[in-house]
Design a protein that fits this description.
The complex is a heterodimer. By secondary structure, chain A is of the alpha/beta class. Chain A has two domains: 194 residues, FAD/NAD(P)-binding domain (3-Layer(bba) Sandwich); 128 residues, FAD/NAD(P)-binding domain (3-Layer(bba) Sandwich). Chain A has eight helices and 23 strands. Chain A has a five-stranded parallel β-sheet. In chain A, strands 9-16-10-11-12 form a five-stranded parallel β-sheet, covered by helices on one side. Chain B is α/β, with parallel strands linked by helices. Chain B contains 21 helices and 27 strands. In chain B, helix 8 runs parallel beside helix 17. The chains are: A alpha/beta, B alpha/beta. Chains A and B meet through loops of A and helix 14 and strand 14 of B. The structure holds flavin-adenine dinucleotide (2 copies) and iron/sulfur cluster (SF4) (2 copies). The site of one iron/sulfur cluster has 14 residues of chain B, from helix 2 and helix 3.
Chain lengths: 342, 588
């Protein structure tokens, strides 16, 4: 197959890269471009927690080097943020005012940390572990920090908690009932998690909420509704992820929590596909749309989106379920895979 | 001091010559109306055509009273609208166009001028001499109040008949107090009533008094009874106990009652009423409140800040579902069954519809259901004769009877109701007097400067502060938004581009050096070969050319111009002029 197409992929994570690889393999002539608002080649997000604590060096964070894009003749635009999509003229508008044209578009813009509306007044004090760029901002502060407060929970949060504990930091966690994302844990599961953590030095606070945060980096004071007061050098929020879709709003591409796509990963606009954790995919088996966040599904969806964009009709299915361990609770899911075990 | 009438500037020290008098033209040329509409998108989007850049500039100059009056001239209830307006202007604001940042906080600034005006503020009314005409207005919602006000200004004797005990319509019985404090509402209503307008409350036309009797007693009757009949869900279980309809639910809450909601509440609907019901349920002690909508949040008929406040109060929005059955224990509601939906394209706006997914039912347990699906007018309840009125778009008329507001248009919003009612008042006056007495014109005035530095373009939008959750729950009437102080209002006012300043290049003086094009931050200065005229006489889209042989002029596209003034500064021939353009009403 040969074409004059310009396939543009917004997103340099697993979904975007696997889509690009398939497009390049199947269409040797077309232009393939990947866009990322980060300044780092394709990397393992799941290893970010290890990178923060120092156990994973930067080289091990990378999945691909810049040279490998060049070898595959894939143009990668790093540090460039897509601000708007004009689907009528098939144009992407960047925040640095440049515009580029596409013939077919794959949106694989992933997800960002979820900010609970009730925590918005404290946004100034919260740190998130979402991207390499975020992490670089405070990596050094972690080294010097003595006391760290974690608010929420979620899979990544617990992994991080263990790492901080192992580093000898004094860690407190306020487990937020809705934070066990992407899963809702039952009360028994929650008890098991708390029991497991009680064997560590981590101080666990449950059935409570944040009332007030004051202070500045290195000297925060947190008050809870039940009257607990804590000091902390850094405060982290782990309350799940939410699709990264602001730039498509108003474009005509339908979205709900994520970008709405059918079972073929096609959006409501012609020649635009979405995959990975930014997509909300119609699942005919349960007759509902779902968002899946996690590495293995992103890989799979990236490939299927690319094939369908090239004319195939593959219905997306979930990858196989695997057990995942969360503080002693075994969770069987297609969502998550322990990338560090790879 | 500058006195227009005398034609010169007077200053304590100097008297300026007559040459320095500003040139002012009042135009009725279709081209000027077209230009004004294109140039000032916020004003064009405002149904009442509020002079937005005008009042924002007054706020910048700390003339809050004048800012308030500029508002009041167009929309009668600035303090009310500054809190609850649906803000079509902000969606149209040039500052929110692609690559320009975010829209100006027009509505917050409207509230600011109401909040910050001095206590001794003087209200301006251009009263006409009394006529001997009597007009009855039925309904004291925003439409009835606006019509009564304008008719009273025209000199007619006005009596309002209101079915409820208190005036205000949906402002009093629909919108909750935490969004619209009642003392503020009554203050602005009383500013209208004190013009000598009489009001009879607690009397329903159609039930207590016949429309025919009013027709006999009055020279004209204006029906502004809004939309009062709630739309039904039309599904099994709708009559179970604890299934409320949104309109009655809000009316009860606003009268200080506490309808039963329980802990888990499902609100059905995607508009103002639905969100107000959900937020009121939170204040009544519900801990798990959801808004359930057929399409996605993008298509909800409320602005982003409302969605945000609902989320902040812990209200979950479940999209792409539609209720199919309400489940009960024979007496009370216990649950609700939903069917899932999918978005599909259509050929007519908004080009999307939701389609049911077959066999996708699921049920959730709830303690109460609030159905807020909108409402329709009750024409038959007033008089069957109302069917005979001739529709004139947003108003209707036959003989002595006129109709306006939501009654005619179906549920809209406060500003649309006010705009329609003011148009209606003009028509009533014309019929009573036998001629038109008011007219809208474009006022054009020379203006020497851009009035603002370019640096203002990069100021970020000031958001509204709100009270915390504890205070919201402490007293359900506590107003959530706290308003802008002077500093915030000043900062936000700087952001307005002042689109009412029109930039023009004099084609006779221009030497085609294209220096202006080189410095322009936008695609705002065009080389054109023709400007076609539209059917209504206004200018159409410029026909551009890049061939110098075809260029007839270098022209500023005011619909793209962000009023940065860089062209003005760089032009070697001084051939770029600035004109202040304002829509104003004058006597004929
Ligand atoms: C700290 C952390 C630990 C995790 N651990 C695990 C784990 O152990 N197991 C597991 O299965 N999953 C894990 N995940 C989740 C997993 O990493 C994600 O689900 C996965 O990366 C999603 O892939 P994606 O390709 O959809 O999007 P992402 O990997 O999020 O990539 C999105 C890309 O889009 C770019 N982008 C977004 N918006 C724009 C824009 N406007 N303009 C330009 N570029 C844009 C971003 O820069 C990024 O390159 C973890 C996530 C995090 C944050
Ligand atoms: C809960 C709720 C929240 C809303 N929130 C907003 C908002 O935030 N922003 C916004 O712009 N719009 C909002 N709206 C819509 C807005 O309130 C209406 O569009 C507007 O009030 C319509 O004005 P009106 O004067 O035509 O009718 P109404 O305000 O409905 O007034 C009609 C009046 O006529 C009276 N009446 C009716 N029948 C008779 C009769 N037979 N005899 C005597 N009197 C009679 C009624 O009692 C009422 O006082 C909201 C509506 C509701 C229900
Ligand atoms: S910048 Fe000012 S004048 Fe221009 S559209 Fe926005 S509010 Fe109106
Ligand atoms: S003032 Fe002149 S240069 Fe500035 S945006 Fe308007 S036309 Fe362009």
């Amino acid at each position: 197959m040969s074409s004059q197409d310009h396939y543009v992929i917004i997103g340099n994570g697993p979904a975007g890269n696997h889509a690009a690889a398939v497009l390049r393999k199947k269409d040797k002539e077309a232009r393939v471009s990947i866009i990322s608002d980060e300044c780092i080649p394709y990397y393992y997000k799941p290893k970010l927690t290890g990178f923060i604590t120092g156990s994973v060096p930067r080289e091990d964070l990378l999945v691909l080097s810049l040279e490998s894009y060049a070898r595959e003749n894939i143009r990668v635009r790093l540090g460039q943020k897509v601000e708007r999509v004009d689907v009528d003229s098939k144009t992407l508008h960047f925040s640095h005012m440049e515009k580029i044209q596409y013939t077919k578009l794959v949106i694989a813009s992933g997800s960002d940390s979820r900010m609970l509306p009730s925590m918005e007044p404290y946004e100034w004090a919260l740190k998130f572990v979402t991207s390499y760029t975020d992490v670089m901002e405070y990596k050094d502060q972690i080294k010097n920090a003595q006391e760290i407060f974690i608010f929420g929970g979620d899979f990544v949060g617990f992994k991080f908690l263990r790492m901080l504990d192992a580093m000898g930091k004094k860690v407190s966690i306020l487990i937020y009932p809705h934070a066990f994302w992407p899963y809702n844990l039952s009360d028994e599961m929650l008890d098991q998690v708390v029991a497991n953590l009680s064997k560590t030095r981590v101080q666990v606070i449950v059935k409570d909420d944040i009332k007030d945060i004051k202070g500045s980096p290195g000297a925060y004071r947190i008050k809870t509704c039940n009257g607990i007061e804590k000091k902390a050098d850094l405060i982290f929020s782990f309350n799940g992820m939410t699709p990264n879709i602001d730039f498509i709003k108003g474009s005509g591409i339908d979205y709900d929590h994520g970008i709405l796509v059918d079972e073929y990963l096609k959006t409501t606009v012609d020649d635009v596909y979405a995959c990975g954790s930014c997509a909300q995919i119609y699942n005919p088996a349960i007759k509902a749309y779902t968002v899946t966040i996690g590495w293995p599904n992103a890989v799979n969806q990236g490939e299927v989106a690319a094939l369908n964009l090239l004319g195939d009709h593959k219905v997306i299915t979930s990858v196989g379920r695997k057990y995942f361990d969360l503080e002693g609770v075994k969770i069987k899911t297609t969502w998550w895979k322990n990338i560090e075990d790879e | 001091m500058y006195s227009k009438e005398e034609g010169f500037f007077k200053d304590k020290k100097k008297t300026y010559s007559v040459q320095s008098v500003k040139r002012i033209v009042y135009s009725t040329d279709a081209r000027d109306f077209g230009q004004a509409a294109r140039s000032v998108p916020c004003q064009e989007a405002c149904p009442a055509k509020t002079n937005i850049p005008g009042y924002i500039r007054c706020i910048h100059d700390k003339r809050y009273g004048r800012a308030y009056e500029l508002n009041r001239m167009a929309n009668i209830l600035p303090g009310v609208l500054g809190r609850i307006c649906s803000r079509p202007c902000e969606a149209a604001c040039r500052h929110g166009e692609p690559d320009n940042g975010t829209s100006v906080g027009i509505c917050h600034l409207k509230r600011a001028c109401a909040d910050l005006k001095p206590a001794s503020h003087k209200i301006i009314e251009g009263l006409y001499s009394p006529t001997d005409k009597k007009v009855a207005v039925i309904g004291s919602g925003p439409a009835g109040l606006a019509a009564a006000h304008d008719l009273s200004v025209f000199g007619h004797k006005v009596m309002i008949y209101e079915g409820q005990e208190k005036p205000g319509g949906m402002l009093m019985y629909g919108i909750p107090e935490f969004r619209l404090p009642r003392d503020l509402l009554m203050l602005e209503i009383n500013n209208i009533l004190r013009m000598g307008i009489q009001i009879t409350t607690g009397k329903k036309i159609g039930t207590d008094i016949a429309l025919k009797d009013l027709e006999k007693e009055y020279d004209a009757v204006v029906v502004a009874t809004g939309c009062v009949i709630p739309r039904k869900l039309g599904i099994e279980g709708e009559d179970l106990e604890n299934v409320h309809n949104g309109l009655e639910f809000m009316a009860a809450v606003n009268e200080g009652q506490a309808p039963y909601v329980g802990k888990k509440v499902a609100v059905i609907g995607a508009g103002f009423t639905a969100v107000d019901c959900a937020r009121s349920a939170v204040r009544l002690g519900a801990s798990d409140v959801s808004l359930n909508i057929r399409k996605t949040q993008e298509y909800m008929r409320i602005d982003e800040s409302e969605k945000h406040e609902a989320a902040f109060e812990g209200i979950l929005t479940n999209s792409l579902i539609q209720p199919s059955r309400i489940i009960g224990d024979g007496k009370k509601v216990t649950g609700i069954e939903f069917v899932r939906t999918r978005m599909e394209k259509t050929d007519t706006p908004p080009f999307r519809t939701s389609v049911l997914i077959k066999d996708s039912q699921f049920t959730v347990q709830v303690d109460s259901v609030i159905a807020a699906l909108g409402q329709g007018p009750d024409a038959d309840g007033i008089s069957r004769d109302l069917k005979k009125l001739k529709s004139l778009g947003d108003l209707a008329w036959k003989g002595k009877v006129f109709a306006t507001g939501d009654f005619v248009t179906g549920s809209t919003d406060v500003i649309t109701a006010i705009a329609g009612a003011r148009k209606c008042a003009r028509l009533v006056d014309e019929k009573l007097i036998g001629e038109k007495r008011r007219q809208t014109v474009v006022r054009l005035e020379d203006h020497k400067t851009t009035d603002r530095p370019r640096a203002y373009d990069f100021i970020s939008r000031r958001e509204m502060n709100t009270i915390d959750m504890e205070k919201r729950l402490e007293n359900p009437a506590n107003e959530v938004e706290t308003g802008f102080d002077e500093t915030r209002a000043f900062e936000e006012s700087k952001r307005c581009y002042l689109c009412n300043l029109k930039y023009e290049i004099d084609p006779l003086a221009c030497i085609y050096c294209s220096a202006c094009i080189d410095v322009a931050p936008k695609d705002c200065i065009k080389m054109i070969r023709n400007i076609p005229l539209n059917d209504d006489g206004s200018y159409g889209d410029y026909e551009e050319t890049s061939d110098w042989n075809d260029v007839v002029s270098i022209t500023i596209e005011n619909a793209a111009c962000i009023r940065c003034g860089q062209c003005l500064a760089v032009c070697p021939m001084d051939c770029i002029s600035v004109t202040k353009t304002e829509l104003i009403e004058i006597d004929i």
